[in-house]
User: Which sequence fits this backbone?
């Protein structure tokens, strides 16, 4: 995800107070010349890679102060998502190659560690936009088009002015979604509320007009707001109170399709959107489930703006982890699940497998009314769960084992597909063997993709937690993943070696965490 820049003439931004009644233009020109000269000096010696500035601790502060608009990607060379973003980022930078006010830059956060810490980089890629002393987080789409549109919105007026029918048609034909405010008086309170709403929404284009011909073209005799979109019904007319908040709510409810197909292109819009309740329909696209999708869409109309409706093709290999995340098997599909994107990532399961319009509507309404309890997944407990040195935990036996006050319990939370977990597996088995005869120490593991816990949330793999005896404390282990380090940690009663000891281990954890976050809902 990234984005950057806008196109405007430097002199347009020259503050009016620099112009004087006598010789004002000459003084202004001198100021512009000096500013451009100083700016060219600031860029002198700065390395570029395919039009993207390479930022380091030696030039970062100077460039963020001198460049009016600067988008910055903090990346790691090993990060797969950063590699996928790179060509799109270069394309976006190319859109602003003739603009002396706007640039795209990048920071290798594995080298410029201090910069990454200063700007609170917690994952890769992280993109920030520096605009005249202010810093904005970018969390929209990862295509060049997404980034360019966002930058232009951030640096230009909240709503562009339409002066002719041809301009209006061109804009509506160009944008997937555009909101047009029709106001006979663009300085009215209603028009200002519209502009305020436009300024608060970054991922949708807004326009405003008072042109009589444009009014006539759309059959309007009074003020109106219309959202034009290239899907569903094509356009939606606003009929609420003309307040900024109500206009924002209207746009959020209508800017996405009623039903969204989950894929790499739509994922960012889904995750970064304003609607945090998602109903997921897992199906096989090859079965041509048009009737089911029609019912799903009918239900979606009832809850527009409250719940996002998403269909997921389980035959797409990229989506298999999502299926695992909800504890679903391929043979159980088609099926629906509901998730709330909060800190808990709360999941909800219907009591019936029927997928009728009526049953799906009831499920969603009961969820919104607070009548459904969160679904806590648990794998079946193996009969021989405690037969080996490393004990197997699932949702149903976790508390009895991990929170046994008579024992020190060390648990690995893993994912079957996680490369780092696979590397750790033989070491963890050795650790279990080492302490198998200690009655006060238990080494255990739990598949966190198949089991949920109410009071423990796992966000990356592997996660290691230590539950000391005679205590309610839970200690996170972030030390080296070696047998020697684990033994030292356990023999000290969890007092030594819990902290991260090597940059390599940290990078591995960040990479695994980043990949995990982008592959689940």
Assistant:
């Amino acid at each position: 995800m990234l984005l950057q820049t806008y196109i405007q003439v430097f002199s347009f931004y020259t503050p009016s107070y620099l112009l004087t009644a006598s010789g004002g233009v000459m003084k202004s020109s001198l100021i512009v010349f000096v500013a451009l000269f100083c700016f060219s000096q600031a860029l002198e010696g700065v390395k570029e890679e395919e039009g993207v500035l390479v930022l380091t601790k030696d030039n970062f502060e100077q460039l963020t102060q001198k460049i009016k608009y600067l988008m910055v990607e903090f990346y790691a060379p090993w990060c797969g998502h950063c590699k996928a973003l790179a060509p799109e980022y270069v394309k976006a930078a190319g859109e602003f190659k003739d603009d002396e006010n706007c640039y795209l830059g990048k920071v290798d956060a594995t080298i410029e560690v201090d910069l990454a810490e200063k700007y609170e980089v917690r994952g890769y890629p992280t993109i920030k936009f520096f605009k005249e002393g202010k810093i904005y987080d970018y969390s929209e789409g990862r295509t060049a088009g997404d980034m360019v549109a966002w930058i232009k919105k951030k640096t230009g007026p909240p709503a562009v002015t339409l002066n002719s029918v041809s301009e209006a048609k061109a804009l509506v034909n160009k944008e997937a979604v555009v909101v047009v405010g029709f106001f006979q008086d663009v300085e009215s309170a209603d028009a200002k509320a519209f502009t305020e709403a436009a300024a608060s929404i970054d991922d949708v284009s807004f326009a405003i007009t008072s042109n009589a011909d444009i009014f006539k073209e759309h059959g309007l005799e009074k003020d109106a707001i219309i959202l034009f979109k290239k899907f569903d019904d094509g356009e939606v007319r606003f009929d609420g109170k003309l307040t900024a908040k109500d206009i924002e709510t209207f746009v959020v409810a209508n800017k996405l399709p009623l039903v969204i197909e989950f894929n790499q292109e739509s994922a960012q819009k889904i995750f970064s959107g304003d609607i945090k309740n998602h109903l997921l329909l897992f199906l096989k696209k090859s079965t041509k489930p048009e009737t089911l999708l029609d019912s799903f869409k009918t239900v979606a109309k009832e809850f527009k703006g409250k719940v996002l409706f998403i269909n997921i093709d389980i035959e797409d290999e990229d989506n298999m982890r999502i299926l695992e995340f909800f504890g679903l098997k391929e043979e159980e599909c088609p099926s629906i699940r509901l998730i709330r994107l909060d800190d808990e990532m709360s999941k909800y399961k219907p009591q019936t497998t029927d997928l009728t319009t009526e049953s799906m509507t009831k499920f969603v309404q009961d969820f919104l009314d607070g009548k459904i309890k969160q679904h806590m997944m648990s794998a079946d407990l193996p009969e021989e769960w405690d037969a080996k040195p490393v004990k197997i935990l699932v949702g149903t036996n976790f508390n009895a084992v991990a929170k046994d006050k008579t024992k020190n319990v060390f648990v690995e939370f893993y994912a079957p597909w996680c490369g780092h977990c696979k590397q750790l597996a033989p070491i963890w088995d050795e650790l279990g063997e080492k302490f198998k005869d200690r009655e006060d120490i238990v080494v255990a593991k739990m598949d966190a993709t198949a089991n949920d816990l109410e009071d423990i949330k796992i966000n990356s793999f592997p996660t290691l937690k230590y539950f000391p005896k005679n205590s309610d404390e839970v200690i996170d282990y972030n030390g080296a993943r070696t047998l020697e380090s684990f033994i030292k940690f356990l023999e000290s009663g969890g007092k030594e070696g819990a902290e991260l000891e090597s940059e390599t281990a940290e990078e591995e954890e960040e990479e695994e965490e980043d990949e995990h976050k982008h592959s689940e809902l």
